[in-house]
């Protein structure tokens, strides 16, 4: 498998000279299997760049897109209206989310329509189906995807994607319970090749932001150690944190869990 990040910021996109290293787009990542099948995680503003890349190499035939949404807060769906394949009659979409198919379609349609956007979601040329994520895993080609509920206002889910002996887990938009560790998440990520985790706050900031639904690099290192993951990738980065601050977070986190990195736009990783 190959993992590529297209957006790694939380809450709102940003653009300034001191935030170029990690990038300013909101969450979007793509996982591509050995046979070429692709799973897209979230549809933040980073989705636009992914769409441009896809269309540049698109053939004349039908193309299937599998979009897994962790939840429906704006930073995770606001790139969808600007995703070029959405407007192609050769594109076939399957949207997966924790909601019912009807609720997913309604949520995306409400966001992309009316007075909010000039093109109604339902009128775009692509074909679309909607699937509710269940407790059991599912296959997209040879990629196996499973989910786990997270602690976040209005709900969110983590996704684990596996092929062969490689696995990557996305667990953004979550925070630790008031006491102890999220044992359900710790079990879900056990032995993962790559663990992508919410590092929106520093531990000091989190003391004043409990209940906001986000976590810290320190909690990420605790989970990584407990569950024996191979790499920890800090993501859903705070739009107020500049490159220097994020560099410092990685240095601190690496003292707790050596193989810690921060996600960057266009960063590509082989998941072995």
Q: Helicity level, as a percent range?
A: 10-25%
End-to-end CA span: 7 Å
What is the CATH topology classification name? Metallo-beta-lactamase, Chain A
CATH architecture: 4-Layer Sandwich
The unreliable regions are none
Gyration radius, rounded: 18 Å
Overall residue-averaged pLDDT value:
97
Strand portion: 25-35%
Q: What's the domain count? A: 1
- Strands of the biggest beta sheet: in what spatial order? 6-5-4-3-2-1-14
CATH superfamily: Ribonuclease Z/Hydroxyacylglutathione hydrolase-like
Structural descriptors:
single chain, 272 residues, alpha/beta, Metallo-beta-lactamase, Chain A, seven-stranded mixed sheet, globular
Walkthrough of the structure:
This protein is an alpha/beta fold. The chain has a single domain, classed as Metallo-beta-lactamase, Chain A. It is 21% helix and 27% strand. The chain has six helices and 14 strands. It is globular, with a radius of gyration of 18 Å. The mean pLDDT is 97.
């Amino acid at each position: 498998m190959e993992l590529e990040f297209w957006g790694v910021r939380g809450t709102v996109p940003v653009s300034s000279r001191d935030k170029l290293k990690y990038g300013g787009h909101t969450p979007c990542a793509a996982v591509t299997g050995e046979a070429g099948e692709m799973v897209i995680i979230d549809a933040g503003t980073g989705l636009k760049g992914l769409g441009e890349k896809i269309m540049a190499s698109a053939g004349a035939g039908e193309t299937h897109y599998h979009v897994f949404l962790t939840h429906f807060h704006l930073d995770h769906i606001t790139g969808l209206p600007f995703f070029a394949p959405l407007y192609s009659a050769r594109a076939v979409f399957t949207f997966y989310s924790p909601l019912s198919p009807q609720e997913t379609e309604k949520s995306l349609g409400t966001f992309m329509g009316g007075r909010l956007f000039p093109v109604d979601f339902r009128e775009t040329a692509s074909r679309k189906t909607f699937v509710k994520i269940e407790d059991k895993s599912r296959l997209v080609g040879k990629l196996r995807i499973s989910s786990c509920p997270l602690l976040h206002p209005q709900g969110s889910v983590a996704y684990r994607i596996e092929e062969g002996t490689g696995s990557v887990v996305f667990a953004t938009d979550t925070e630790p319970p008031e006491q102890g560790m999220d044992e359900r998440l710790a079990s879900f990520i056990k032995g993962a090749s790559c663990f992508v985790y919410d590092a929106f706050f520093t531990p000091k900031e989190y003391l004043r932001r409990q209940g906001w639904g986000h976590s810290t690099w320190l909690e990420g290192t605790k989970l990584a150690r407990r569950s024996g993951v191979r790499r920890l990738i800090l993501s859903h980065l705070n739009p107020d944190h500049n490159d220097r601050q994020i560099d410092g977070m990685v240095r601190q986190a690496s003292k707790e869990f050596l193989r810690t990195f921060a996600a960057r736009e266009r960063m590509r990783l082989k998941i072995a």
